[in-house]
Amino acid sequence: MTNKMFDSFGAVKNALEKAKDTAVGKATEALDANNDGTVDIQDIIILAIKLPGVHITRESFLRKELFKNYPPEVIDDAVARTPALAGISEADIDRIADEVIKFERNCVSGISAALGVPGGAAMAATIPADVVQYYGYTLRAIQKLLYLYGFPEIDSDGEGISLDSETINRIVVCLGVMNGVAGANNAVKALAKALSVGVEKKLIAAALTKGTLYPILKSTLKWFGVKLTKEIFAKTVKNAIPVVGGIVGGGITFLSFKPCCMRLKDVLTDTMLSNPAHISSAEEEHVFSHIVDGAYEAEYEECGESHSV
User: Mean pLDDT, to the nearest integer, of 179-203?
Assistant: First the structure.
C-alpha cells in the first residue's frame, strides 16, 4: 500500500472521528436540560416528562384499567386509597402490570428500530430523540406500576410536564431498582412504608437529598452517568453502520426493557402500599427509621460504590 493510500485512509479516519466527536457534542448539548454542562439521568427525566403522553394521571389510569372487572364503588375506593386496600386481587394487579410492561416494551422497541436508520453522523439529531423517548416509555411504565401497587400520583405542574426535585429523585431510585443498583430495593420499600404511615414529604425529600437514601441516590446517578455517556457515544457509532444499527438497536432495547420493568414490579408487589400484611426486612426497616428521624448512616455510603447490572 502506497504512502498516498495511507494518507487517504488517515484523512478519512480523522474526518470520521471528528464527525463522531461533533455528533456526541451536539447530542450532549441537546440533552443537558438543566444546563450544568453534563448529561445525567435527571436531565433525561426532565426532557422525557415533557413528551406528549409520558405523564400518566393516576386516577384516569386506574379507572381505565379496572372498569371492566370491578364495580364503581370498588374503583372509587382504589382511587381514593390503593388498589390493594380496595380489595383488587393480587392476581388482577399483576396481570395488568404484565400487560403494561408488554405494551410499553413494544412501543419502545419500535421507536429504537425506527430511529436507527441510515444517515451516519448526519443523524446526530436523532440520538437525543432516541435516548429521551426510550426513557419516556420507561417513565410511563414506572408511573403505571407505581399506581397499580399503591403509590400516590407523581407530582407535577398542572400540565404534567414539570417535576420537583423530590419527585425526580424518587423516580431515580425506581430506575436504580430497574438497573440493579445496590440498596435501591430497600429504598423503594422504605419509601412505600413512609408514604403508607403518612411521613411528611419534606422528610422524605430530606432523606433523598442528604439523609439515609442519599448514598443510594448518588450511586444510581453515578451508574447512569456512565451508562448515558456510553449510550450517546454508542448510538453515534451505531448510526455510522445504519442497517445493522437499526436491527441491533431495536433488538437490544426490546430485550433489556422487560427485565428492567420486572425488577421494579417484583419489588413493588410486596410493600406496605401493595400488601398491608407486608413484613419489613431488617435493612428496609433500617432505611425507614432514618427517613423518619432524618439521621444519616455512614454505612450507606458503601452503596455509592456497589452495584450490579
Answer: 86
Neighbours of 117 (CB within 10 A): 14
CA angle, residues 136, 138, 203, in degrees to nearest 5: 100
Residue pair 177/189 in contact (Cβ under 8 Å)? The answer is: no
pLDDT for 165 equals 79
131 closest CA partner among 214, 36, 231, 206: 231
> Of all residues in the chain, what percent carry a pLDDT higher than 90?
29
Q: Residue 241: pLDDT band by 50, 70, 90 thresholds?
A: very low
Check if the beta carbon of residue 154 is closer than 8 Å to that of residue 167.
yes
Model confidence at 265: pLDDT above 90:
yes
The secondary structure of the chain as a DSSP string is --HHHHHHHHHHHHHHHHHHHHHHHHHHHHH-TT-SSS--HHHHHHHHTTSTTTS--HHHHHHHHHTTTS-HHHHHHHHHS-TTTTT--HHHHHHHHHHHHHHHHHHHHHHHHHHS-S-GGGGTTHHHHHHHHHHHHHHHHHHHHHHHTTPPPPP--TTS----HHHHHHHHHHHHHHTTBTTHHHHHHHHHHHHHTT--HHHHHHHHHTSTTHHHHHHHHHHHHHHHHHHHHHHHHHTTSHHHHHHHHHHHHHHHHHHHHHHHHHHHTSSTTT-TT----HHHHHHHHHHHH----GGGGGGGT-B--
> What is the pLDDT, as a whole number, of residue 236?
47
Q: Residues 157-169: what's their mean pLDDT?
A: 73
| pTM check: above 0.85 | no
